[in-house]
Amino acid sequence: MYKDNIVPANEATHVAKADRTSNAGDLWSWSAEDLAAAIKRKDITSREATLSALERISDVNPKINAVAEVLAEEALRAADAADAAVQRGEHLAILHGVPVTTKINVDLAGHATTNGVLAFKDKLAATDSPPVKNFRRSGAVIIGRTNTPSFSFRWFTENDLHGRTYNPWDKAHTPGGSSGGAASAVASGIGALAHGNDIAGSVRYPAYACGVLGLRPTFGRIPSIAEYGRGVTAAIMAVEGVLGRSIKDVSIGLEAMVFPDARDPWYVPAPLSFAGADAPCKVALFSGNATYKPDASVAAALKNAAEALTAAGYVVEEIELPDFAEGQDLWSQLVINEWRDTLGAAAMQLGDDRIKRKFQDWSDLVPRISVTEFSAAMCVRERIAIAWQHLLETHPVILMPNSWELPMMLDRDQGGLDAIREILHIQSPMLLPALLGLPGLSVPTGLSNGVPAGVQIVAGRFREDQCLAAGRVIEAAHPMQTPIDPRGF
């Protein structure tokens, strides 16, 4: 039987054969929507779904190391409680009995919030964080906690405590970061949904790299907290998000996570949908310029997505996004300067060698600024936000890349200043939506050279409904066959 423990990357875990049920089968591959419906109809039990998901962890996690902590005993207790509620005829929440994962950088009561840091391996949480609390409130069964880079501050997922997470499509490519464990898990059938968080693409980029859907909501949409406060940049840019294998599941995951929490003063109780969200509209296509040029795979993904939207009645127009280069630089100017003496200082003291090298190089590229200059930079952010809002009035949906290249090879950020400068250029589409607090959705469009390709959809504040509507069109035209068995291991 599983034990609730941190599982080393090279150690397989096993479900006791005696505890299997004949109906568990391939339930690990089912969608969240189908699992919830079948559990409510009593066609299957949550225990069967949970056992199937735990067996899937046993089968594939030793290869990809997506789940850093397996919560089997807790999960089975939660599943049994879910099944008892079904038998009693109680009201059942939207994810009742559905196996999911959460990221190991948010609090789960009684477990260490390690954030991939060796020094935090015994840092037990007293209470559940808002995303964990809301998943539970929505009936979900948390089967494990997914891996992240040290301090959750790389587009690669590896740390000295939990080891390296691999991309199930090709282990030579990054699974993304910092929610690389979440994306790799969902793509491989470990959990129907995964929680992640995003300040610089940490939901959207792993989703892109692993060929799944990843939604970064508007800041204020899903409640979030930080132990010592978040600072200005994290408060207005960092968000909790959700990853899944379909637009429908991501929509369900979003609905499950939006309950208010008094611990977040930035929370906004905005409607999840507005009239006319599904109606075709004008789309601003940003496919590059003289400075930012997509590689062939990215250009093809944008073309395919644009054609799908056009066929569905959307009017797609090539448009230069306002202040794109300036906004990309502004993200670093604001975040790195605020974090130098907070998260950056902690990373330089307690982090592993990879995060130290990454943060030092990024910091070296960003000049120090005064408080007055920081305030002036925030005014520039406001000016850019206004320009984008004017664009979104005429073109409510923006179609743009996740990255200007296919998913990066492992550890590309360990090559010094030039490598970081190059990566910031490549990853610039991740930064602008975060800088402005906008929702962004990563949607796969198929494979290119054996690894996932895809696009990013951005909309106005609290218009996740328009992101999801456009994403649904692209998904229908370019369905991604996930979950998959890890390839080439």
From TrEMBL:
Q: Where are the transmembrane segments?
A: none
Residues covered by the Amidase domain: 48-468
Q: Which domain of life is it from?
A: Bacteria
As for what it does, the entry says:
Hydrolyzes indole-3-acetamide (IAM) into indole-3-acetic acid (IAA).
* Similarity field: Belongs to the amidase family.
What the entry lists under NCBIfam families is as follows: PRK07487.1
Protein name from the UniProt record: Indoleacetamide hydrolase
The organism's lineage is: Bacteria, Pseudomonadati, Pseudomonadota, Alphaproteobacteria, Hyphomicrobiales
